Structures are given as structure tokens and as C-alpha cells.
């Protein structure tokens, strides 16, 4: 922190102050002021060229130098990774080093330069294409996963041939704010919040994986800025205001001062909420709602405790599959889950089986290149196809249930056959464990995410199949309003208070309660204080959110009676547009919390 302050002081004294202001989508609250680290993730463009015979040797030398530089860079990154932290990442770097040094890549490219008289970039690209083609023909997950490693290595050499810089988040060793066109899940998984103080990206929406990661890391972030990466230069000063989506590049001294004060106020406000930790999450007339936490990684457990979560309502396990060369084994899954479960007990941990695909792709399994991944082979669909991989995880979850209360939840179920098939596989996993003599909770509860409109429409049937529902509004809104949740251009249509969404939620709560099911919500909508009275009024039993939102939501919850919430919901459902509903709820909130709701519902 001290170092971060020093950087800001340094930056204040810089001569060139431009005060460039851009507004995007604020996805993780708080304010960060610091130095830009521009992470260039754009692909290098090259021109294929024929070369004269006398320049062939020169071209080979240029290629060898680029390879040598790549080896040095990778070695440098490797030594900078703290071993205990980035163990898996280290393996990836080692693999990249092996490929870069490998005879196959070097001999083949040099031979092509010699034989075809073409430039190094073109020859390297030919090598890459040839290799990709031969990998395509092999139906082996592990081998096809190697394609991404080769692509990564080729891109690095290409960058060096073009004289461009190389970046890896793991190698950063001073406080910075990341500016990038986009961050991949592999990038965000490497973010160390002690060093990376915030980030801003050109693309993305409120519920894209980068946004969710920023909230779980509790660092300010703004996405969907369209072209911030073109305005940013490493070393320049930047202010990121995550609550209102404002970003200022090279601010004046006055602006920096203004935001430093704002940051202080923000921190004071957060601190003032801490007393709520010990108080019950209930309305003024005693109606209790369970406030739970969403987690992506076990590192968040501390924050869960700090914010008084009543268990984990959504544990997104897909992050276990990122930044690694091999699929996690049953034992690896088990160790991670056991640790979380033991930490959270006596409260419950809701483990969601992995939801890969969509905007969460991964390297080892390298999902099919799909035109529309959000609606493609992701989540449960992938699991039902890759039963072996799925069962490894299921057995591990079951084993973890022997160490504390666990529920299991399945993502993206769209109909009855899917949930029945899933349950059969789950039963098979139990049989396998019994035959191995391994103990697990025989009464383990199973639930499903309600995030596909078809499932919402047949909630009454589905309610007979499971023990609980949890509404995943991120996908539900994406699918029902037909807007890509990661596309910044249609972000204006992403309206959680759309009457269609509210009607669906109301319908599913009724169906769940008719069957005696618990129903919660774990999409980002659950953690937004503005929506709280409506969600309570709808009758939801549980709300699961990023840990930082829990106390903010609890504060609101404790100021309304259940009757008032029900009345607000009734009124809200009478409006035909999201804008009117939002305006109405905002006014109700502003009456009680004028200091928190003073900017209007649309900022
Ligand atoms: C959701 O879709 O609302 C959800 C919670 O799941 P994810 O964001 O992981 O898709
Ligand atoms: Mg989802």
C-alpha cells in the first residue's frame, strides 16, 4: 500500500496531464488511483513476403534471435512466480519453454525459410497451421489441449519478430492498474490483488467473467469502455471509479485529490457497515432471508467470514480447470472442496458442477470452436457428453460432503430429461464410492440453477425432481432478453428489472414453494441493493452474492418490513417497462437512504 501511495505522488508531479475521461460499465465498486500497466492482448499482424536468396541467412538469424528472446522472457517470468502461489502456472511456462527450445519448431521453420524463400513470420505461421491440422485429426483431449500452448508460443515469437513487448500478469511486481482490450480467464486467475489495484477493459458487461472476478477479488473495475486500450500507455496515471464506471487517464492534481477524498469516504462507509455482521438478516417484522456468498476461488474464504455470510450459495468450480496442463483429478477436486467445506461448516457449501464454455473457456480441454458459445456445448451439456470428467468431480463433491454440510447444484438445465440424466450419473457416482467403501453424506441435497427460460416455464415439473432451485439471473437475462451478457454494445438492454424477468422470477418462486422447495438467487442481481425489496417481496428464501455486497444488502433488508416489500413488488409488477420499475424502486429507496441513492437509477 505504501508503495502504491508513492506511485501516486510520483504521478502527481508529472508534467503531461491530459485528463481524458471515459465512462463505461462499473462492475466492481471502489476507487483505484495508480499507474497504468497496458496489457496488449491484440494479435500481431504480419505480411507474408518472399525474400531473395541472399537475405535467407539474415532471415534465419532474425528468427533465431526472436526465439532466443522468447526463451529469455519465459525464463524471467518463471523465476518471478512465487512457487507456492503459481505452481500450476509454472508448469505452463515450463511447457512453453520446451516448445520454444524444441527442435520441431526451430528446424521446421528454418527449413521452410530456406526452401521456400519466405519471411520468418510466414514460415512460422506455416509450421503452426501444419501442426494444428495434425492435432485436429487426433481425438485426444490432452493432445488437442497442446494446440493452445503452441499457439501461445508462436504468438510470443511473432511479437518478438515484430519488436513488440510481451506481457504476463504473473510477472508484474509493482502496484498497477491493468488496462487491456480484454482479459481471459487465465489472466484474471493470475491477478494478485496486492499488486493489481484495479482493471479496465474495452469489452465486457456486468456479468462477464472478468466482472465477476473483479468483484470476488474486491478490486475496482470498469469494463465495456470500447477503446480505453487505445488511449492508455503504461506508466501513465489512471483513476478507476468502479461504482459509477468513470475512468480518467492522466488526471489533473485537483482531480486526483478529489478522488483520493472520495476513496477515503468509500472506505469509511464500508467500515461503518461492519457492525451489521453480527446482526440477523431479517426485515423489521422478523422475516429472515439467508444471505450467502458466491465464490470463485478458495482464497475468498477470508472475505466470506469478514462479511458474515451464512454459507456459500454458489461455488463456481470452473476456475479449478484454468491455467493448467491436465484435467484436475478426483483427489485434487476433493482436496480443494474439503478445505472449503471445513472452513465454512457448520454453514452449508453449495458446490455447482463446472460450467465451462460461454465466456469461460479453458486450455486443457479446449472446447469446440463455436459460433455462439453461450448457447453451445457448455455447462451441463458438456458434462453429459463428457461423463468421465463429470463423474470425477461428482465423486469428489460427494467425498467432501463427509466433512461438512454440502449441497450440489447443476448449471444450465433446460428440461426434464437433462436433470434426470444428470441425477442418474450422480447416482452412479454414489454407487462407485460405495463400492470403494468411501463415506459421503447419503442425504446430500441436489438443486439446479434456474437460468434457462425453458426451465422457468416448466418450473412446476422440475420442482418435483430436485431439492432446491437457485435463479441464475446472469444467464436468465441473457437468454430471455436475447442479449449477449459480454457484449458491451447491447449492455443498455441488460435490464434485471425488465417486467418479463420479474414475472418469470415470481412464477418460479410460486412453483418452488408449492413443492416445498427452497428457492434462492445467485446471479449478480441478488447482490444489488436497489433490487432487494423486490426480491424479498417476491418471496425468495436465499440470496447469494459476492461477499462485499452482503452487508450493504443486509443494511437495506433490515430497514423494510416484509409487508412493505410485498407491496413494493406488487406495485412494481404493474409497470410495463424496466425504466418505470427502476424509477419507482429508486424513489422508494431514496426516501429511506437519501445518502446512498442520490444519483438517479440510471447513471
Ligand atoms: C448466472 O447465470 O446467473 C450464474 C450465477 O451463473 P454464471 O454467472 O456462473 O453463469
Ligand atoms: Mg449461469
How many E-type strands? 16
Overall structural domain count: 3
User: Which molecules are bound in this entry?
Assistant: phosphoenolpyruvate, magnesium ion
Percent of sequence in beta strands: 5-15%
* CATH homology superfamily name of the largest domain: Phosphoenolpyruvate-binding domains
Shape: globular
User: Under CATH, the topology of the largest domain is which?
Assistant: TIM Barrel
CATH class of the largest domain: Alpha Beta
Class of secondary structure makeup: alpha/beta
Number of helices: 23
What's the multimeric state? single chain
> Can you give the helix content as a percent range?
40-55%
Radius of gyration: 26 Å
Low-pLDDT residue intervals, each spanning 5 or more residues:
1-6, 363-367
Distance linking N and C termini = 30 Å
Order the strands across the largest sheet as they lie in space: 1-8-7-3-4-5-6-2
Amino acid at each position: 500500500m505504501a508503495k502504491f501511495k508513492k506511485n501516486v505522488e510520483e504521478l502527481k508531479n508529472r508534467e503531461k496531464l491530459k485528463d481524458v475521461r471515459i465512462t463505461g460499465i462499473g462492475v466492481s465498486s471502489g476507487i483505484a488511483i495508480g499507474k497504468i500497466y497496458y496489457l496488449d492482448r491484440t494479435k500481431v499482424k504480419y505480411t507474408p513476403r518472399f525474400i531473395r536468396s541472399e537475405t535467407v541467412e539474415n532471415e534465419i538469424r532474425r528468427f533465431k534471435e526472436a526465439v532466443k528472446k522468447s526463451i529469455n522472457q519465459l525464463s524471467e517470468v518463471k523465476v518471478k512466480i512465487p512457487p507456492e502461489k503459481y505452481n500450476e502456472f509454472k508448469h505452463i511456462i515450463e511447457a512453453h519453454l520446451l516448445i520454444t527450445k524444441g527442435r520441431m519448431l526451430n528446424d521446421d521453420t528454418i527449413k521452410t525459410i530456406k526452401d521456400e524463400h519466405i519471411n520468418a513470420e510466414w514460415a512460422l505461421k506455416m509450421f503452426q497451421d501444419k501442426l494444428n491440422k495434425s492435432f485436429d485429426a487426433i481425438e485426444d483431449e490432452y493432445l488437442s489441449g497442446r494446440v493452445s500452448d503452441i499457439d501461445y508460443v508462436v504468438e510470443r515469437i511473432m511479437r518478438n519478430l515484430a519488436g513488440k513487448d510481451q506481457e504476463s500478469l504473473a510477472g508484474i511486481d509493482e502496484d498497477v492498474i491493468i488496462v487491456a482490450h480484454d482479459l481471459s480467464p487465465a489472466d484474471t486467475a493470475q491477478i494478485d490483488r496486492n499488486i493489481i489495484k484495479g482493471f479496465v477493459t474495452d469489452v465486457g458487461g456486468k456479468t462477464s467473467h472478468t466482472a465477476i472476478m473483479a468483484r470476488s477479488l474486491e478490486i475496482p473495475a470498469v469494463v465495456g469502455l470500447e477503446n480505453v486500450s487505445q488511449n492508455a500507455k503504461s506508466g501513465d496515471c489512471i483513476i478507476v471509479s468502479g461504482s459509477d464506471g468513470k475512468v480518467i487517464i492522466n488526471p489533473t492534481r485537483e482531480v486526483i485529490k478529489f478522488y483520493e477524498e472520495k476513496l477515503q469516504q468509500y472506505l469509511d462507509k464500508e467500515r461503518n457497515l461492519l457492525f451489521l455482521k453480527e446482526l440477523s438478516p431479517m426485515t423489521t417484522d422478523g422475516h429472515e432471508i439467508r444471505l450467502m456468498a458466491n465464490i470463485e476461488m478458495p482464497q475468498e474464504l477470508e472475505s466470506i467470514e469478514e462479511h458474515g455470510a451464512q454459507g456459500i450459495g454458489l461455488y463456481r468450480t470452473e476456475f479449478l480447470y484454468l491455467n493448467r496442463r491436465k484435467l484436475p483429478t478426483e483427489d485434487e477436486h476433493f482436496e480443494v472442496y474439503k478445505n472449503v467445506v471445513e472452513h465454512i461448516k457448520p454453514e452449508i457449501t453449495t458446490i455447482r458442477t463446472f460450467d465451462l464454455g460461454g465466456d469461460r473457456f479453458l486450455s486443457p480441454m479446449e472446447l469446440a470452436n463455436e459460433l455462439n458459445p453461450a448457447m453451445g456445448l457448455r455447462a451441463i451439456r458438456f458434462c453429459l457428453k463428457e461423463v468421465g470428467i463429470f463423474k470425477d468431480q461428482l465423486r469428489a463433491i460427494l467425498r467432501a460432503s463427509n466433512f461438512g454440510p454440502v449441497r450440489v447444484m447443476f448449471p444450465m438445465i433446460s428440461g426434464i430429461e437433462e436433470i434426470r440424466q444428470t441425477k442418474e450419473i450422480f447416482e452412479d457416482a454414489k454407487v462407485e464410492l460405495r463400492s470403494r467403501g468411501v463415506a459421503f453424506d447419503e442425504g446430500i441435497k441436489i438443486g439446479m440453477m434456474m437460468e434457462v427460460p425453458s426451465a422457468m416455464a416448466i418450473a412446476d415439473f422440475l420442482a418435483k425432481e430436485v431439492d432446491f432451485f437457485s435463479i441464475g439471473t446472469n444467464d436468465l437475462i441473457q437468454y430471455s432478453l436475447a442479449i449477449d451478457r459480454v457484449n458491451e454494445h447491447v449492455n443498455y438492454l441488460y435490464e434485471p428489472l425488465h417486467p418479463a424477468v420479474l414475472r418469470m422470477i415470481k412464477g418460479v418462486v410460486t412453483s418452488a414453494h408449492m413443492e416445498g422447495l427452497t428457492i434462492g438467487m445467485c446471479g449478480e442481481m441478488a447482490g444489488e441493493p436497489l433490487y432487494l425489496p423486490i426480491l424479498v417481496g417476491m418471496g425468495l428464501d436465499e440470496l447469494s452474492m459476492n461477499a462485499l455486497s452482503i452487508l450493504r444488502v443486509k443494511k437495506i433488508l433490515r430497514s423494510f418490513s416484509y409487508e412493505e416489500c410485498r407491496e413494493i413488488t406488487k406495485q412494481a409488477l404493474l409497470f410495463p417497462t424496466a425504466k418505470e420499475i427502476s424509477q419507482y424502486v429508486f424513489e422508494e429507496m431514496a426516501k429511506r437512504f437519501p445518502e446512498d441513492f442520490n444519483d438517479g437509477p440510471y447513471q
